[in-house]
Input
Amino acid sequence: MRLGRYLSKSRIIELQSSNFDDALMELLQSCNISSSNEENISIMSEITEREKTITSYLGNGVALPYVRRPISKSYIFAIGRCKNGLNSANSGEHKDTRLVFLMIISTQNEESYLTVLAAIARIFQNQDNINLIFKEQSIATFRRNVRHLFGTYKSVVNSERSSINHLMLREAQKIARFNQCAAILVFGDVLVGPLEIKEKIHGVRFVLVAHKTDSVAEKGSFDDIIYVHPFSNYRLSQARSAIIIALTRGILNYKDKVCCFSGLPQSNTFDTISIIDIAKEFGNSFSNNENLIKEGIHPEALERLLAIAADISVEGREGKPVGCLFVIGDIAKIKPYTKPLVLNPFYGYKEEDRNILNPFMAETIKEFSSIDGAFIVRGDGIIESAGSLIQASSDRAVQMPSGFGTRHAAGAVISAVANCIAIAVSESTHQITLFKDGKMMLFADQSFSSSTI
Output
């Protein structure tokens, strides 16, 4: 989705206010939703009421308030910069906010808006993007930089390296065609500008593999974008993670081959082409099953859980390593095998506020990851509970390699008996392991980059 089309130049402004409520009103007035001020007041009331439940402060000096209204467009975006921050007494949790991004959503987009919200959050979690927006500059430059981040402006890349990349890309296409590959995975961390795909092979998808904080709106015309955590310097490790995510989405299936197109990070030069046969690479994990994802589990929910697990494995909590277990699937089948260890911290909240697709939930989940027990997640991404004890046994043989503890054993068994998927993060090795039908699949290994820890 091209997010830039929902953000016009007139709705990118310098904020004159020093408190959150007044800043919101400035942004609402720039949107021209209604000639009546009562509509703006109504929107303000709805946003401030939501703030009482969960703050819209995203971190990095950015607030991301949103509201659903009956509007003709799918979305309306407005963004305001306050160079000195919202430093008045009544700004509360927004006292460090220097950028407010207002998102108004059509009431007809009830199901998809959290995905868009997460995409916007990724842009503002990139420190380079934040520096670009906050540095001293005129309003014209500020507007241009914001629109650049949302794909409105294109940058110029070195023509010589661009020629080399296009030559390599043509060879990758030939190799992909000869090996009957279903997709070409392009590693976006190589790029410092857009990669123009002039010609495409019929039946072969071009998939961009990007780090979760990358701004990829301008990096070429791809069929799909997959985000992975930059936890490893090994290209095969990142490729495995990308393939697993592609399998959850249905972009690839078990019998496919993929062509990986990669190079050194930030070199803007591709130097490696490799072929991966998914059936051979993951043969022990799939046992000839073509579908990774279970019925009733939404692909975007499973992908988001994997991303949160990757964050926890790398970052830990407050500088200390953390292990945790997520179980996602049909709650009716999972509940008979669980019981609470602590009072459920998610009880009583609205479903949209405890949906893992909501970017504001990530920090909450990380905070509760230190609690003993598992997170139980409904197939559509709604968190039912945290701190749940898994009490399950299986007649089927569940084989575990030596060195794995009770957390992994619980994940393996519950995946076998409750027709669900479990994701375990190891506290000691930082490995992320995915369990399906009692079988384990390594999602991310412990080969971390020293620059990301």
In short: The radius of gyration is 23 Å. Confidence is low (pLDDT under 50) at residues 153-158, 447-453. The chain has three domains: 3-149, 159-286, 299-444.
